[in-house]
Design a protein that fits this description.
Blueprint: E1 7-11, H1 20-35, E2 39-42, H2 48-59, E3 64-69, E4 84-88, H3 91-100, E5 104-107, H4 112-126, E6 134-137, H5 144-155, E7 168-170, H6 173-184
Parallel strand pairs: 1-2, 1-5, 2-3, 3-4, 5-6, 6-7
Helix pairs in contact: 1-2, 1-6
The protein binds adenosine monophosphate.
Length: about 180
């Protein structure tokens, strides 16, 4: 039986952000996933960084899975024309379905939603509930303050130093490409 394609769950903003690098790198990520034969699992919205990543993946012939709660279909312009499309009742279910159908997590620039998603998978990892790699793409240095916050939390005695080992900060697209190539096998 052929090996099933591996899936990468992308957590990212429903807005484009203010620096053009966020959207351009999102586009590059979508293309890269498709070229490596990796399926994009995402929030199914056609807006912001999320929409841009998926449009690029689809344009490059990649497979996609989108998961969106009913109440966001309009606000986030949910796309049904995906390889797999799932509508959930709640935000919690959305995160659960996205996570369950992915082999690794990639965080691109985003807001409170992306932070919520990142910290959830990070805390699950801390508790030993999974061993999926968590990557953060530091587009335009956007996530520097997040890493500084995690370091500060550790320095203040609220987490073990191992917390910092549960995710990998990727400085640029080249670093991401190397990781994805290893991952695609
Ligand atoms: P943001 O980073 O705030 O632009 O949000 C990114 C995505 O995360 C959007 O699709 C939001 O709808 C989604 N989101 C925000 N909060 C949650 C949550 N608690 N659970 C699941 N998805 C969320």
């Amino acid at each position: 039986m052929p090996k099933a394609a591996r899936s990468i769950c992308v957590f990212c903003g429903a807005r484009p952000g203010s620096d053009a690098v966020f959207m351009s790198e999102a586009r590059a990520v979508g293309t890269m996933l498709a070229q490596k034969g990796l399926r994009l699992v995402y929030g199914a919205g056609d807006v912001g960084i999320m929409g841009e990543t998926a449009r690029a993946a689809i344009a490059a012939g990649g497979d996609t899975m989108g998961v969106i709660p009913t109440h966001l279909m309009q606000a986030e312009q949910g796309r049904r024309d995906l390889g797999t499309f799932v509508i959930t009742e709640t935000m919690h279910e959305r995160k659960k379905v996205m996570f369950a159908n992915s082999d690794a997590i990639l965080v691109l620039p985003g807001g409170a939603g992306s932070l919520d998603e990142f910290f959830e998978v990070l805390t699950w990892r801390q508790l030993g509930l999974h061993a999926k790699p968590i990557y953060i793409l530091n587009s335009g240095g956007y996530w520097g303050p997040l890493v500084a916050l995690v370091d500060y939390v550790i320095a203040q005695g609220f987490a073990e130093p191992s917390l910092r080992e549960f995710f990998t900060l990727l400085p640029d697209l080249a670093a991401l490409e190397t990781r994805l190539a290893e991952f695609a096998g």
